[in-house]
């Protein structure tokens, strides 16, 4: 929708006031308008204020039947806080990656993302200091959460998924407050902060994507296998014998920028990608670039990695035990930052500002 409007605007001449008005509505509108447009997933893939703007440009459209009700932002956020993996649609409303799309992504990034990640994408936003986990510095082109081999940059889908689903245990909340199209635009713009993408794929090669294998045994057998793999893979050195994140090396770990980094407490925290075995498997198989967490694809079999994923999920707090999940300081701080910026995620009751 946004790209359609901008492309139509590119053909408009001698109408600077109209162009300025539309850009303001699209990207720097007041929080109340953004809330009304994007908060409810009933309007998640809808037109909101963009439909009004498009009507101004092209005239009224035929009315459409009301779409079935989808989950509200509050429902989605509660599910995410409880460890649910939010659904992501990669294909719907994906605009072409061109200069117009990238520039549109820049506007959204400045309005929504720069407060933590910085105008220059260096992770030095004005509110970054309020977060214990440093916001990602995009200028290095190094991303933790990928479906590509260790050392490789992520795919577009990987970045889109992180924006859409957020990262558990950090200040990166899921951005379902943005439309599908807007998240793609931000994805394109984020890639412009580093030339690592073009450098890595300079010969025109396409990213190699790691696939999660289909289970070959029961969940119970995978969990039993995972217990032995946890020892074999020396996971306890960092994550502790019982998975409490209290291993012998836990207090000594640093990332590639020499910042202290703590291993996940599997007993109290949802794994960063979520509780689905496929997501945990992906972290084990690809590692987390920029951190001490290596890829185990060369030392463990597919079944061993899948068994480890099932075992980790079995000891993690589950949806039915919501009170056992620790919501850490960064996640709470993110709610406060977004609230003060006027971005409505419809904060769950237990995190209503001020808490």
TrEMBL record:
Domain Cytochrome c: start-end pairs: 221-316
InterPro entries to which the protein is assigned, alphabetical: Cyt_c-like_dom (IPR009056), Cyt_c-like_dom_sf (IPR036909), Cytochrome_c-type_DH (IPR051459)
PROSITE patterns: CYTC (PS51007)
Molecular-function annotations in GO: electron transfer activity; heme binding; metal ion binding
Keyword vocabulary terms for this entry: Heme, Iron, Membrane, Metal-binding, Transmembrane, Transmembrane helix
Membrane-spanning residues: 16-34
Keyword Membrane: yes
Protein name, UniProt field: Cytochrome c domain-containing protein
Species: hydrothermal vent metagenome
Lineage: unclassified sequences, metagenomes, ecological metagenomes
């Amino acid at each position: 929708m946004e790209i359609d409007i901008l492309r139509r605007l590119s053909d408009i001449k001698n109408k600077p006031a109209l162009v300025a008005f539309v850009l303001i509505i699209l990207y720097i509108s007041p929080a109340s308008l953004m809330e009304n447009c994007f908060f409810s997933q009933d309007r998640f893939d809808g037109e909101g204020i963009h439909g009004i703007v498009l009507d101004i440009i092209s005239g009224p459209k035929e009315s459409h039947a009301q779409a079935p009700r989808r989950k509200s932002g509050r429902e989605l956020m509660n599910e995410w806080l409880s460890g649910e993996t939010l659904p992501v649609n990669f294909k719907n409303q994906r605009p072409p990656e061109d200069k117009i799309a990238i520039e549109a992504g820049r506007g959204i990034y400045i309005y929504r993302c720069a407060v933590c990640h910085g105008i220059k994408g260096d992770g030095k936003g004005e509110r970054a200091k309020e977060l214990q986990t440093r916001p990602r510095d995009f200028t290095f082109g190094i991303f933790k959460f990928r479906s590509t081999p260790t050392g490789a940059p992520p795919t577009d889908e990987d970045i889109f998924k992180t924006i859409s689903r957020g990262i558990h245990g950090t200040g990166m909340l899921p951005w379902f407050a943005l439309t599908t199209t807007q998240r793609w635009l931000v994805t394109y713009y984020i890639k412009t902060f580093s030339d690592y993408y073009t450098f890595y794929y300079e010969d025109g090669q396409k990213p190699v994507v790691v696939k999660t294998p289909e289970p070959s045994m029961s969940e119970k057998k995978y969990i039993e296998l995972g217990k032995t793999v946890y020892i074999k893979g020396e996971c306890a050195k960092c994550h502790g014998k019982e998975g409490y994140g209290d291993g012998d090396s836990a207090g000594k770990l640093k990332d590639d920028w020499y910042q202290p980094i703590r291993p996940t407490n599997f007993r109290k925290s949802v794994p960063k990608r979520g509780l689905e075995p496929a997501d945990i498997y992906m972290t084990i198989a690809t590692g987390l670039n920029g951190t001490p967490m290596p890829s185990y694809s060369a030392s463990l079999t597919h079944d061993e990695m899948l068994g480890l994923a099932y075992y980790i999920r079995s000891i993690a707090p589950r949806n039915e035990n919501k009170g056992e999940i620790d919501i850490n300081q960064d996640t709470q701080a993110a709610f406060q930052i977004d609230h003060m910026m006027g971005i409505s995620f419809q904060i769950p009751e237990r995190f209503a500002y001020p808490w």
